[in-house]
Amino acid sequence: MYEQFTDRARMAMGLANQEALALKHDYIGTEHILLGLMREGRGIGFKALEHFGVDLQKVRQELENLVKQGSEPIEQKMLSQTPRAKLVIQHAIEEARQRNVSDIDTGYMLLGLIRDKNGLAAHVLANLGLEPEAVRAQVEALANDERANEAEWLSPRDRAHKFWGLSLIMATILVVILVWLLVGILR
What is the DSSP string of 127-167? Predict the structure, then answer.
C-alpha cells in the first residue's frame, strides 16, 4: 500500500504506528497519523503546520483532552488502521491524483487529514485554531515553492530514474571524449 509514498510519508506512517503503541492503542487512527507527521519533522505536512505555530507538544496536549491512553501494553508491532485512517489515506491519494502526481508525500497526508472533517485529527487541528482552507493553501504554497525539499516529492523509483539518467548522460559524454581522443591519436 505504501509503494506510492515518499520516504518521509512512509516514515510518518511508521511513527504513527509507534505513537499508537506508546499510547497503548491497538489501532492507527487519524490522531496517530497527525502525531506521525509532527514527529517526522521535515516534510511539507510538518512545515505547513509549523507555519501556523502548531508543534508536537500542542498536538499531544490537545489529544490528551480528547483521547485516553490504553491500559494494557500492545503486543503486536504492526497495527491495523481504523476505517477513518484508511479513508484519510485514500483522500491523500485522491489529492495527489487531482494534481497528476503519482507519489504521496506528507503534504498530501495532511490534506487527507483535513479533508476528513469528522476525524479526530481534524478536531485537534480545529481546536488549535486551524482553518482547513488556510492549511490547504499553505500546503499548496510549500508544494509550489521550488525551495521546498525536492526529495519530499521524489519517490525511490523517481530518484533511481534520475540517478541512472544522469549516469547514462555522463557515460555518453565519456564515450564521446574517448572516441575524440582515439581519433586524434590515430591521425
Answer: HTT--HHHHHHHHHHHHH-TTS-HHHH--HHHHHHHHHHHH
| pLDDT tens, residue by residue, 87-140 | 998 898 888 888 887 788 888 999 999 988 888 898 888 898 888 899 888 888
Task: Map residue 50 onto helix, strand or coil.
Answer: helix
Q: In a 3-state reduction of DSSP, which class is residue 53?
A: coil
Nearest to 134 by CA among 155, 116, 110, 151: 110
Cell 491524483 identifies what position?
97
Residue 98 to residue 77: CA distance in whole angstroms: 34
Number of other CB atoms surrounding residue 42 within 10 Å: 13
- Residues 107 and 170: their CA atoms lie apart, in Å, by 34
Half-sphere exposure of 21 (CA within 13 A, CB side): 13
All three cell numbers of 146:
521550488
Retrieve residue 157's grid coordinates: 523509483
Half-sphere exposure of 11 (CA within 13 A, CB side): 16
Cα–Cα distance, 92 to 110 (Å, whole number):
8
Q: Enter the pTM of the model.
A: 0.73
Write out the three cell numbers for 115: 479533508
Residue 18's nearest CA partner among 46, 44, 38, 4 is 38
- Cell numbers that stand for 101 in this block: 502526481
